[in-house]
Write a sequence for this structure.
DNA sequence: GCTTACCTGCCA
DNA sequence: TGGCAGGTAAGC
């Protein structure tokens, strides 16, 4: 499940392939992947054909492509990409290697494997022949365009950009925990001002963005805070510690994730490497807490799973 | 502020 | 075959 670190891995992997390139053609194989585009799939194709990619910018889990015309004039609109639950962006063609021969070779050596393009929904063809595939099994994610507006604090809108312009559809999204312009004291104050559960506030992308179910559980475990503690019942110091711990987990994930892809293949699978080894609570129901040995519990909360140590993360209500 | 819909594949 | 995975946004 792509959260902030996974989306940042995609941004870094994709950037050298697309920045400065022109979009030559767009193929929409699954209209539902463009359902957030106001004008529909055909309009998305028309709007993107012939425009140049000026930058790839990310805030939280939102990744957008800044667009300019052939003369380098900003078009005032961005191509939004959100990976949802199962989205991937992959590069093929041109300098990337993903043809049938190499796929067959892999299949022959490691047994049958699913077609990597099985859930291809949209493909962008760039002027140098590079193909960028948006692949998404569950179609929670998608591509659409959104006009640029100015960030309210006037600071750089996200990672990969140098001005305060961001898509209107991302303007309600808070800065993420790895954003140098984030005001952690203000985020902590917003959490402490509310009686809702601290986990629901961590997952609220308007307060601070980029955190999903996995990193929320990990951050809460690190800071020894239980998921259902009201925001208002967490001390200022512990709230700041929680935010710092969550940021630290995401930074570590980013470091590991950053080594698992090469320049020719933009890997977006959040499970690669890091997930198999480094999680302390998420997905570890019944296993001993790495800190105290008590069995990790899994409970259903807010229609999703919450993993926690019943000894380290005590009820504070 | 909570619930529901959107989605598909996998697993018990 | 029903439950589960969960990010986002609309609806109540």
């Amino acid at each position: 499940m792509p959260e902030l670190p996974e989306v940042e891995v995609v941004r870094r992997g994709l950037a050298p392939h697309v920045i400065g390139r022109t979009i030559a053609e767009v193929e929409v194989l699954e209209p539902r992947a463009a359902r957030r585009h106001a004008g529909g799939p055909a309009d998305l194709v028309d709007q993107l054909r012939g425009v140049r990619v000026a930058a790839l910018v990310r805030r939280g889990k939102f990744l957008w492509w800044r667009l300019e015309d052939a003369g380098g004039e900003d078009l005032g609109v961005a191509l939004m990409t959100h990976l949802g639950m199962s989205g991937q962006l992959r590069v093929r063609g041109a300098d990337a290697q993903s043809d049938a021969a190499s796929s067959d070779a892999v299949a022959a050596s490691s047994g049958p494997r699913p077609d990597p393009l099985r859930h291809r929904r949209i493909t962008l063809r760039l002027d140098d022949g590079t193909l960028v595939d948006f692949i998404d099994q569950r179609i929670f994610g998608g591509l659409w365009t959104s006009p640029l507006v100015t960030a309210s604090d006037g600071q750089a809108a996200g990672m990969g950009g140098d001005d305060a312009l961001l898509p209107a559809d991302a303007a309600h999204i808070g800065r993420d925990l790895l954003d140098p312009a984030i005001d952690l004291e203000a985020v902590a104050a917003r959490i402490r001002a509310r009686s809702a559960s601290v986990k629901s506030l961590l997952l609220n992308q308007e307060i601070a963005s980029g955190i999903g179910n996995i990193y929320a559980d990990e951050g809460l475990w690190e800071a020894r805070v239980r998921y259902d503690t009201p925001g208002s019942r967490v001390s200022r110091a512990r709230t700041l510690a929680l935010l710092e711990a969550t940021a630290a987990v995401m930074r570590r994930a980013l470091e590991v994730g950053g080594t698992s892809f090469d320049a020719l293949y933009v890997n977006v699978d959040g499970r690669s490497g890091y997930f198999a080894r480094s999680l302390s609570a998420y997905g570890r129901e019944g296993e001993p807490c790495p800190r105290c040995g008590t069995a990790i519990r899994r409970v259903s909360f807010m229609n999703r799973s919450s993993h926690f140590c019943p000894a380290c993360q005590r009820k504070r209500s």
Notes: Helices of chain A lie at 4-18, 40-48, 100-110, 184-192, 198-203, 213-223, 236-257, 274-277.
